[in-house]
Design goal:
about 325 residues; alpha/beta; Quinone Oxidoreductase, Chain A, domain 1; Rossmann fold; 2 domains; 6-stranded parallel β-sheet; 5-stranded mixed β-sheet; 10 helices; about 25% strand; globular
Length: about 325
């Protein structure tokens, strides 16, 4: 996700940090109230950071965090599908299977659960992509969902990852679901969910920024999640979904990346490198870091700004927060 996903090297840590040390190679998806990865230096809470996969480049790793967290939380936190069990547990449809989240979810579901994975796609290249990732079946994305799943031999499905949804699709979705199934939505869904009541369908929402936005007690679950994803990548179970590396961070490349992601709706699969190094640099803070401790990091940050490439204007703002939350230094170019 442009402006959020990142992979880089830890430059400094706060006094309360226990999970990382300078020199560690890490990756993360950031927080909704602290964007800023369109810059060379970042400030990030250790609880949402994981060690970068050793077998991937920084660009390949940077394509993974947000999509991996979202797909993981849908499967194992919202739907509560058993992790690591290959015992058959129903059929899952992944809407927009060729997108960033869908591409990770297909891999997780096919390799780590007993779900039968059905992905929706329509073009030959996207159909081929989802099959390579592990989808056992492909449903025509252009048809109503109930018709599409019946066309490939399914009378109903048990789980639906509604990564995208189309206005007016509720009747078809309700018809496709088996009784007591589960649907998880990601995007805004403004239609009535009443049609799902008769079948006692469970409806849940997924937003991967919830834990960091509300500083939940289990916020460090994303650290553990990313660490597991990293291990799975290094073991050859998961693969990066990066499709293009646009080179080093610059105003021109940022414009290209945002234009391309908007046109093709695949922002999670674009990446770039740090502006004057091979990777982005991070300042990691602990959950209980105090504002006065971070003032030192602020001074450090401004000193490091002088290392930025000549001609690149970098704007920083300092936002003190309560003692229970780290202060924020948000940067943009």
């Amino acid at each position: 996700m442009l402006g959020y996903d990142a992979a880089g090297i830890v430059e400094a840590v706060g006094s309360d940090v226990s999970l990382f040390r300078p020199g560690d190679e890490v990756f993360y998806a950031g927080a909704r109230d602290r964007p800023g990865t369109n810059a060379e230096f970042h400030l990030v809470d250790e609880r949402i950071v994981g060690l970068k996969p050793k077998t991937l480049s920084f660009a390949e790793a940077a394509a993974l965090p947000l999509t991996s967290i979202t797909a993981w939380e849908i499967l194992f936190d919202r739907m509560r599908v058993p992790y690591g069990s290959k015992k058959p547990c129903g059929a899952l449809v992944v809407l927009n299977g060729a997108g960033g989240v869908g591409s990770i979810m297909i891999q997780l579901a096919a390799r780590l659960t007993g779900l039968t994975v059905i992905a929706t796609a329509s073009r030959p290249e996207t159909t081929d992509w989802v099959r390579k990732l592990g989808a056992s079946h492909v449903a025509d994305h252009r048809r109503p969902l109930d018709e599409a799943v019946k066309a490939i031999g399914f009378d109903g499905i048990d789980y639906l990852a509604a990564i995208t949804s189309t206005p007016g699709s509720v009747p078809a979705i309700a018809a496709a679901m088996n009784p007591q199934g589960h649907i998880t939505f990601i995007d805004n869904f403004d239609e009535s969910i009443l049609p799902f009541k008769a079948k006692s369908i469970t409806i849940s929402w997924e937003m991967m920024f919830t834990r960091s936005l509300f500083q939940t007690k289990d916020m460090d679950a994303q650290h553990r999640l990313l660490s597991e994803v990293s291990a799975l990548v290094d073991a050859g179970v998961l693969r990066s979904t990066l499709t293009q590396n646009l080179g080093r961070i610059s105003a021109e490349n940022l414009r290209k990346a945002h234009a391309a992601s908007k046109a093709e709706e695949c922002s999670a699969r674009w990446s770039w490198n740090g502006s004057n190094r091979d990777s982005i640099r991070l300042i990691v803070v602990g959950a209980a870091a105090r504002t006065d401790r971070l003032k030192h990091l602020r001074s450090f940050w401004h000193a490091r700004r002088r290392l930025s490439p000549a001609g690149v204007d970098q704007h920083c703002r300092y936002a003190p927060r309560s003692d229970r939350r780290p202060a924020a230094i948000a940067c943009s170019r």
